[in-house]
Amino acid sequence: MAFRVDDMDRKILDALQRDASLSLDEIARQVGSSKTPVWNRIRKLREAGIIRQQTVILDAEALGFEACFFVLIRTSEHEAEWQANFLKALQDRPEVLEAHRLAGDIDYILKVRVKNARAYDTFYQALISEVRVHNVTALLSMEEIKSTHHLPLIGTGSPNQG
């Protein structure tokens, strides 16, 4: 049976997305509930897999990771063994922040965060030494305009309404 997310769950999730370090008392105050029901809902949301993990968001540039590349990959290989090797190569590289398999002319897009262009080249050379790709295009992000993991749960007609 699918877990049904109701309005109170969405309020709790919205508060946690803004700041997962909030105390239970503060979350309860923000959502208009008390601590125990909020804790029980958070526990159930974790058990259902809706809350996957709690983490912190770091400032990449402040830590010296000044270059963000979007890497477009085309391949002529689609066998299971190649895909497994490609997936392992991506999983083994901490520079890869995101990887998506696409529909259309491009097979994969990667979001890669590195210190500079030389570090990207090191990443690129290591990747192509492990897996064969037909074509790679790297696009350097000149400016990050918006970046969020915050899902629009409140006031948007969000899916899975209970």
UniProtKB/TrEMBL annotation:
Give the signal peptide, or none.
none
Q: Which UniProt keywords apply?
A: DNA-binding, Transcription, Transcription regulation
Q: Which domain of life is it from?
A: Bacteria
Q: Name one GO molecular function term.
A: sequence-specific DNA binding
Q: Which GO terms describe its cellular component?
A: cytosol
Q: Which Pfam families match?
A: AsnC_trans_reg, HTH_24
Per UniProt, residues of the HTH asnC-type domain are 5-66
Q: A GO term (biological process) for this protein?
A: regulation of DNA-templated transcription
Q: Quote the protein name from its UniProt record.
A: Transcriptional regulator, AsnC family
Species per Swiss-Prot/TrEMBL record: Salinihabitans flavidus
